[in-house]
Amino acid sequence: MLQNTVSTRRNIGGTEFPILAAALPVVANDPVGDTYWHIRLKAATTHLSSRPGQFFQLRCPRSEAGDPFLRRPMSVYAVDTNVGEIAFLYKVTGIGTTGLSTLVPGDTLDVLGPLGVGFDINPEWDHVLVVARGVGLATMGPLARALHHNGVALTAICSYRTPEATIGLEPFELHGSVHTVYDTDGTSDIASVDSLIREEHARRSFSFAYTCGSKRIVSLLQDLSSQLGFGGEVALEQRMACGLGMCHSCVIDLRRGDTVESVRVCTRGPVFSLGDIVAPEETLSWYRSCDESAI
Ligand SMILES: Cc1cc2nc3c(=O)[nH]c(=O)nc-3n(C[C@H](O)[C@H](O)[C@H](O)COP(=O)(O)OP(=O)(O)OC[C@H]3O[C@@H](n4cnc5c(N)ncnc54)[C@H](O)[C@@H]3O)c2cc1C
Ligand code: FES
């Protein structure tokens, strides 16, 4: 394993942690359904210390699709300290992820991380909500495991286009109760998800809610959190270049009291407080231009 420590930083909570660039051996890289892949890598100790919500910058190999110049950001899907492995669950969408899907056991993948600020977990919470969509479930898998480890009960709402597109349910089924909702039968409509959350909250109230970057879910959870009285966090999938805070390509606007502040998602996030996310009409950043139709 080729290793090379590139930096040591302080995170938002004041804890110092190392970032390691290393070429990690591929243990397995298998398709999951039509468009998703699951890759497992033999990892260094530094990588095994990554927290739920943090991400790595992957130097995806060249393939017939092209040669990706920049690293690609990817959330950690699983960490197995017993066997010393980290895993990523990824959707093949372009040059980088196509190259990633060509790796086979025995190859190496150059990774840089762990990066960013992960999710907050309070062991005193009784019951929390996770709402995730499609490949966003990859980001939430380690969170489900950590919540279980901290004795916090979890209800997950996992949203997909179709039943055939269902992926990443295992951590939620193992560690909590799960509702799957689909575009094809209308159960993923924002009104249906709203009703479902209210029913679950009436049954056993939520202390906190987590979601990933769908702006319709973020808006819904912002409304529900103020009406029903729970806090929350969102993991944003902002487009990134360096992932290290140097290029400013990942800047978004955040609410700070009565003002709006521009911050870099790669260093201040990708996890942010729900209440800090600015409504699309108030911002000129990515959050305004992302896909309106998908939740
Ligand atoms: C913090 C973070 C964590 C992520 N975790 C995961 C994960 O666990 N699994 C996973 O499959 N993907 C994840 N992504 C998205 C992933 O980085 C992109 O899908 C990937 O960079 C696409 O690279 P590509 O070269 O294959 O596609 P490109 O050729 O670069 O783009 C192909 C398509 O993907 C879209 N795209 C590219 N980058 C992003 C992005 N950052 N967010 C949303 N859409 C994008 C483009 O708009 C385009 O439509 C994450 C992104 C971030 C910022
Ligand atoms: S990706 Fe370069 S500053 Fe965030």
TrEMBL record:
Domain FAD-binding FR-type: 19-121
Cited Gene3D superfamilies: Dihydroorotate dehydrogenase, electron transfer subunit, Nucleotide-binding domain of ferredoxin-NADP reductase (FNR) module, Translation factors
SUPFAM superfamilies: Ferredoxin reductase-like, C-terminal NADP-linked domain (SSF52343), Riboflavin synthase domain-like (SSF63380)
Example GO molecular function: oxidoreductase activity
InterPro entries to which the protein is assigned, alphabetical: Cyt_c3_hydrogenase_gsu, Dihydroorotate_DH_ele_sf, Dihydroorotate_DH_Fe-S-bd, FAD-bd_FR_type, FNR_nucleotide-bd, PyrK_electron_transfer, Riboflavin_synthase-like_b-brl
Cofactor: [2Fe-2S] cluster
PROSITE patterns associated with the record: FAD_FR
Record keywords: 2Fe-2S, Electron transport, FAD, Flavoprotein, Iron, Iron-sulfur, Metal-binding, Oxidoreductase, Transport
Pfam families on file: DHODB_Fe-S_bind
E.C. code: 1.3.3.1
A GO BP annotation: pyrimidine nucleotide biosynthetic process
Entry-linked PANTHER family: DIHYDROOROTATE DEHYDROGENASE B (NAD(+)), ELECTRON TRANSFER SUBUNIT, DIHYDROOROTATE DEHYDROGENASE B (NAD(+)), ELECTRON TRANSFER SUBUNIT-RELATED
Annotated family: Belongs to the PyrK family.
Protein name, per record: Dihydroorotate dehydrogenase electron transfer subunit
Organism: hydrothermal vent metagenome
Taxonomic classification: unclassified sequences, metagenomes, ecological metagenomes
